[in-house]
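TL;DR need structure tokens for one chain.
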Amino acid sequence: MTTAPTSVLATCRAVAVGGRAGGKVSINGTGLFIHTEHPKGLGGSGEGSNPEQLFAMGYASCFNGALMHVAGQRKLDVARARVTCEVDIGPAPGGGFALAVRLSAHMPGLDPATARELIEAAHQVCPYSNATRGNVPVELSIV
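>> reply
TL;DR here they are.
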């Protein structure tokens, strides 16, 4: 089952040229260009960014926002929260490649049970979590 927004609040556009190895990706309208390169584990130089790194950046930022959202609903302060996202890429069992994600959150001042409740709640509202649910394994942890 897929889920689409009930209305569009914003649209973001990125343009890629040259693929993963020696390519460029830009964010439309910002002037930001990123050189792409295969990581060493995939036979590249590792001297540029790769799609998995960019995905990890987006997911970490989005998840941190979701964490702040659910904490705010509960009148809890997580302004100093830190979210780390690690994205693995490797061969898929049926061919091609697959991803796996590990999200960890550090929330100073919160007890472990409350922190666990917040990370689970954030995982239910985060757009990246909703996009990956059911097709990319996502592991959640508190650090």
